[in-house]
Structure formats: structure tokens, C-alpha cells
Amino acid sequence: MKFTNVRLVGFKSFVEPTDFEIREGLTGIVGPNGCGKSNLLEAMRWVMGATSAKALRGDAMDAVIFAGTTMRPARNWAEVILTIDNSDRSAPAEYNEHTTLEISRRILRKEEGTQSIYRINNKEVRAKDVQLLFADASTGANSPALVRQGQVAELISAKPQNRRRLLEEAAGVTGLHSRRHEAELR
Ligand code: ATP
Ligand code: MG
Q: How many CA atoms lie within 13 A of 128 on its CB side?
């Protein structure tokens, strides 16, 4: 499962539709302060089903929608579309007939609250379906492959116990610990 393109529309600072082609060997993004590097990574987490507003550096879910500037009015919706090459059939078996997967998430700003619409190849699905697709492929919004800004500094300056927690999270053993704890209580 290779990510080949990510398209942002009205997402944070990316007000105009913006495509990022993801080529083999890409390991980092550079650019001046405030140009949108972190926003791009957040868009990737978001389209994979991230639901924590804090992890997306906003107080509310609709903080991902372009909020407007003195020059441009705010938008009422945002969308991120992730294109995946599945020609190696590494996505869950139910997607085997698709050599390309297009995962999209759109959010609408409404008076009665915001609402996300998820689609896989244009078919509306639940957030859970998108999260499971990535979890089964051992990646997703919490993947240790996506390193948040400040996360490295956090690791260096953390107290030993907290540093261990961060490393265990990255190693994917946090789930095992909670299951052991549960077993010991019985
Ligand atoms: P740095 O190098 O400082 O980490 P960066 O490239 O990671 O910078 P981002 O944090 O991705 O930059 O982008 C910050 C910019 O995005 C700010 O100018 C901020 O105003 C803008 N921004 C964030 N959310 C929104 C929003 N909802 N609407 C419009 N602009 C937004
Ligand atoms: Mg940043």
C-alpha cells in the first residue's frame, strides 16, 4: 500500500485545492516557518480518521477548515483526499479488486455542529471503516511513521517513565500491557 497523492481543499492554510505527489523515497518536508508543513501532516492523520482535536492543534473539529484572512473569506467545508496504490494487494482483502484506493474525508461547518463524511472509492463509509483499513495495514493516524513537531524534543526531555511510555507506544506494545494488567486483576 503506497501513498501516491494527497489533495487538500480548504484544509487549514490550504484554501485552494493543492496536490502533493508522494514519490518513492520521500522522507521529509522542508520550507519556511508557517508555510504549512505541519498542516500537511495533520491532513494525512485527519483523512486516516484522527478524531482528537488536540492532536490536530485545534480546540474544535471545525478548526481544520480554512478560517479566512483579511484578504479571503472563510470556507464552510474542508476536504482531504488520499490516493493509495494497492497494486501489491496489501490493503485488507475486501479491497483486492481495487488497484487504486481513494480515501476522502470532508467536514462541513454547520450551525448544529460539524459533521465528517468519509468515502472509500466514492462510496460513503463509517469513520471506523477508514480507521480499520489503516489499522489492518499497520499504519494510520497514530502511526509512529508520522513524527509530530516537538515529539523528538519531548522524547529527549521526558522523565524516564514517560520516555518509556513513548517508546512502548512506538513499539506497539501498549495494548499488550493493558491486556496483562487486566489479566492480573482477575
Ligand atoms: P513551522 O516551521 O513553524 O513548524 P509549518 O510549516 O509547520 O511551520 P504550519 O503550522 O503547518 O506551518 O502552518 C501554520 C499556518 O497555518 C499559520 O499561518 C496558521 O495561521 C495557518 N492556519 C492554521 N489553521 C488554519 C485555518 N483553519 N485557516 C487558515 N489558516 C490556518
Ligand atoms: Mg510545523
A: 1
* Residue bearing the CA closest to ligand 1, atom 10: 38
Tell which atom from ligand 1 comes closest to the C-alpha of 42.
Answer: 11
Chain center to CA of 174: 20
Q: How far is the CA of 38 from the centre of ligand 2 (A)?
A: 4
CB of 66 within 6 A of ligand 1: the answer is: yes
For 110-164, give the DSSP string: -TT--EEEEEETTEEE-HHHHHHHHHHTT-STT-TTS--TTHHHHHHHS-HHHHH
Whether 39 lines ligand 1, by a CB cut-off of 6 Å, is yes
Q: What is the ipTM of this complex?
A: 0.98
**Prediction pTM value:** 0.83
